[in-house]
């Protein structure tokens, strides 16, 4: 089934805690854990899901930093869900796993930690632009203290940046097989520019929830340009 909103995605990715942005890897060791999309197609944790369509050049989101340190990384990314080894993803976001910081990342390149500092209850706006197949730009802003960091990233000669898909994602930490509890996370001003300058928001996008033993443990709700992600307690 092809969804009308196939171009925009809300994506949950499961992984162990790391100090930097987390990258695609097999986490199928988490027992009985699946990601389930709105069209009912389950995928094991660690497997990307999506449709390749469109030509995205810009994506943005605003993250509210929670009052206490949490065990997740939240980000926005532009890239291609195909498995081609010559495709890069451009991403930027916030770590709250080891220490609160902001970063941007170009796949097959280095992680760049920005000079923007964050403290509890800050509001961080992250915008990424795929300028061409060989370069991208990231703007990270702390609305509370007016700090701004702009990074220009170059793709190496063997890869290209293809904006076929946009993802707003949360990477979670697990203790054995159980997700570490976290406060409700709200992502606002979720916007992407697609083909011919068309504007896309969160509502109506394909969303991925996490289920364990046939029960939703991480839920995702969307309304207009807002995403709400919750840990579902027993």
Automatic annotation (TrEMBL):
Q: Which GO terms describe its biological process?
A: proteolysis
Q: Which residues form a coiled coil?
A: none
The organism's place on the tree of life at top rank = Eukaryota
**One Pfam family in the UniProt entry:** Peptidase_A4
InterPro entries with a match to the protein in the record: ConA-like_dom_sf (IPR013320), Peptidase_G1 (IPR000250), Peptidase_G1_sf (IPR038656)
Q: Does the keyword Signal apply?
A: yes
Q: Name one GO molecular function term.
A: glutamic-type endopeptidase activity
Q: Where is the active site?
A: 171 (proton acceptor)
- Keywords carried by this UniProt record: Signal
Its signal peptide is 1-19
Is the Signal keyword given for this protein? Answer: yes
Q: Which PANTHER family match?
A: ASPERGILLOPEPSIN, PUTAITVE (AFU_ORTHOLOGUE AFUA_7G01200) (PTHR37536:SF1), PUTATIVE (AFU_ORTHOLOGUE AFUA_3G02970)-RELATED (PTHR37536)
Q: What name does the UniProt record give this protein?
A: Peptidase A4 family-domain-containing protein
